[in-house]
Amino acid sequence: MKHERHITLGIETSCDETAVAILADGRDILSNVISSQIDIHRAYGGVVPEIASRHHLQNMNPVFETALAEAGIDLHDVDEIGVAAGPGLAGALLMGTAFAKAVALAAGKPLVAVHHIQAHIMAGLIERPDIEPPFVSLVVSGGHTHLIAVEGYNRFRILGQTRDDAAGEAFDKVARVLGLEYPGGPAIDKAARKGDPAAVHFKRVYLEKGSLDFSFSGIKTAAVNHVHAERQRGRAVNVSDVAASFQAAAVDVLVDKALMALSQAGSDVLVLAGGVASNSLLRENLKAACTAAGVDLCIPSPVLCTDNAAMVACAAYHKQRLGLYSDLYLDVWPRLSIETDLDLLDARAKAG
Q: Where are the alpha helices (DSSP H) in 4-48?
């Protein structure tokens, strides 16, 4: 029997998480199943693309079946299938899109191509049904750091972005030199709780006056050089102090730039998104700053900050409401600006 509510199935394989989720009416999570490969890639200190693709292939079917079972629905109850088609690792994206296309063909369901970073932004709307565009989003992850004006459910405009390292990338590199385990972001956060954020001064980089762009290469290099210099002098490195000091400097810039973006955009709603949105200091300081400024801050639960398929399903739900479907010619786009319309790229690929 057909569900009365609108059911969207989402598939996410952009990096090393194999995820399938089912949402009702774009907001109500019926299931959100994630198979993580963190333990597999930890031995290499980072994600190995070929290994990630191989495990997506192994995990896809059981994750898919578990998501349907947990949601208590049949595939025939699903209204459309959303899948992340970029940006991300090419092989990993191919695993997800190939599976999505096979299911869509077999079940006769429409296919919706989803931009991975746009999906991260949509994750905030799952738990806050009162928030709708327009608003500003701060997206902070291992590969991306952006300030985005969300002008509609499929209209995104970059206000500022990193000119070099993403914040999450800087966290990972500093964690590595400190000897912390992979993934580096959570490890830095954990170590920092025992450290003094004022122990080492790291310069806050704001670039030109009024700029909403970021630069984390300098602070990353300063932290790495500090650690190397201390060791060369025969001094013990206080890992917690360095972690806390580095984290405080990075978070200060993220918070300050986010408030600047809100002012420039004339918005009083901020949605935090991306894997680094789970960082405890960023969440705490952003809450304090937004409360003082009278800004409505939306921070998703940690499970919705990291890569997951609920966010893909949410984005797909809103795209299908605009009539933006894909077809079995869908390609993957490993490098893709958040401002780029996936549907136009897909049409261009078919024409070419």
A: 38-42
pTM of the model: 0.93
Q: In what order do the strands lie in the sheet with 155-161?
A: 155-161, 145-152, 135-140, 269-273, 296-298
- pLDDT at residue 107 above 90? yes
User: Rounded CA gap, 173 and 170, in Å?
Assistant: 5
Length of the chain measured in residues = 352
Give the rounded distance of the alpha carbon of 257 from its chain centre. Answer: 19
Which tokens in the block code for residue 146? 């952006």
Q: Residue with structure tokens 């898919």?
A: 64
Strands 135-140 and 28-36 come out as: unpaired
Which residues have CB under 8 Å from 74's CB, separation 6+? 68
Assess whether pLDDT exceeds 90 at residue 85: yes
Per-residue pLDDT reduced to its tens digit, 209-221: 999 999 999 999 9
| Domains of the chain in sequence order | 7-121+305-351 (3.30.420.40), 131-303 (3.30.420.40)
Cβ pair 189, 248 in contact under 8 A: no
Q: What is the DSSP string of 257-293?
A: HHHHHHHHHT--EEEEESGGGG-HHHHHHHHHHHHHH
The two three-digit tokens of residue 186, written as one number = 């959570």
Say how far residue 213 (Cα) sits from the centre of its chain: 18
CB contact at 8 A, 199 and 241? yes
Q: Which residues pair with 269 in a beta bridge?
A: 296
- Quote the strand ranges of the chain, DSSP E: 7-12, 17-24, 28-36, 80-86, 111-115, 135-140, 145-152, 155-161, 269-273, 296-298
